[in-house]
Amino acid sequence: MSSAETFEGIRVLELTTTIAGPYSAMILADLGAEVIKVERPGGGDDARSMPPHRGTGPEAESSVFHAVNRNKRSIVLDLKDPAGREAFLRLAETADVVVQSYRPGAADKLGLGWADVHARNPRAVYCSVSAFGDSGAAAGLPGYDPLIQAFTGMMSMTGQPGGAPVRVAPSLTDLTTGMWAAMAIMAALRRRDLTGVGEHVEATLVDSGFALLCHQIIGMYATGATPGPLGSASPITAPYECFETSDGWVMIAAGNDGLFARLCRALGVSELLMDERFVGSAARVGNREVLHEIIQACVGRFTTEGCLAVLREAKIPVGPVHDLREAVEHPVAVDRGTVLDAAVAVGEPPSLPMVRLPIDDAGTSRRRPPRLGEHSETVLRESGFSDDEITKLLESTT
Fold first, then answer.
1. Pairwise CA distance, residues 47 & 64, whole Å
2. 218, pLDDT greater than 80
3. Measuring CA to CA, how many Å separate 228 from each of 154, 205, 240, 306?
4. Is 174 a catalytic residue?
5. Is the pTM of this model over 0.90?
6. pLDDT (tens digit, 9 = 90+) per residue, 185-212?
7. Distance CA 284, CA 361 (A)
8. Which member of 174, 257, 361, 388 is catalytic?
9. Domain(s) of CATH 3.30.1540.10: residues in the chain
10. Which CATH number among 3.40.50.300, 3.30.360.10, 2.40.50.140, 3.30.1540.10 corresponds to the domain 240-321?
11. Secondary-structure class of domain 3-212+336-396 per CATH
């Protein structure tokens, strides 16, 4: 059995936008679930308009939308219209999962909340994705990935000492919230196997942000010190950071005493092993700046390739600091199948490539993301709507 068959037969109604919610549904789609993406009339998912795009006009592809919406079908419903709302609830009667990312309380006001879906389909798992959740001090506040990076303290620890707070480039809290949502859904489906009843689960950006900072939080309570930015360095050991070569940068991760000893010998500074300032990880962390200057003077004499060769010969963890193109075109990424071509129908133009999920295998489907409303008529017909109902629903969304 391939990973793409794991959730075969599971139907997911996705009522989400941007990154976190769509990513959770895409994970389930990659694992074989049937995902029906319900979008609003007009622009659909907000991510469809987010740059960068390939192409222009109606056929332009947003890279943000493309990244988190493969293997889905798209239908358009006006959920503010009673007919559209009723159509959604009829679809929910056939669903195993409903995932939504409205601001807390908004789905309930529309008549599409947990209680509404549960009344129509007690077996459905209902997942709410939001920034801060629907209870507590920040209940219902809107939020996006960079706001959560700032709120949780992540930005205060990112960048160079003395510099401005820095956002981590990947949308970490969005993407990890999508992962947590997918795991929460999987766990709820397993519990449904035992109880026969669905339940309401949630995933929030703020919880995801704090979870990513787990060892920094515990470290703060252990020492009483609030961590600040360290550039590329680590608070737990040294040297564990970037160093500049004569033509680039390398990352050296000499994370324990044995590796530090190998590094000193390889760089010709064995005398450091007898220096009490550098005996043990704690001492090296406490004297990181002095140690960095000494190692930097040694590394700076090498080209990047020369440094890699010498340190790898000594079996020291070291690697180049790639730009993104160098990284994804490196043989490691190619061997791992990191970037894959999207499968398109005969006669269609090529689509943007896709990034493989780490759990995917060779059997995983790679259908391009859907055009807005591409499958509206098909999905409604499959779900038992009459020709007259389909016509009225389609007319109400154009």
1. 6
2. yes
3. 9, 22, 16, 33
4. yes
5. yes
6. 999 999 999 999 999 999 999 999 999 9
7. 42
8. 174
9. 240-321
10. 3.30.1540.10
11. alpha beta
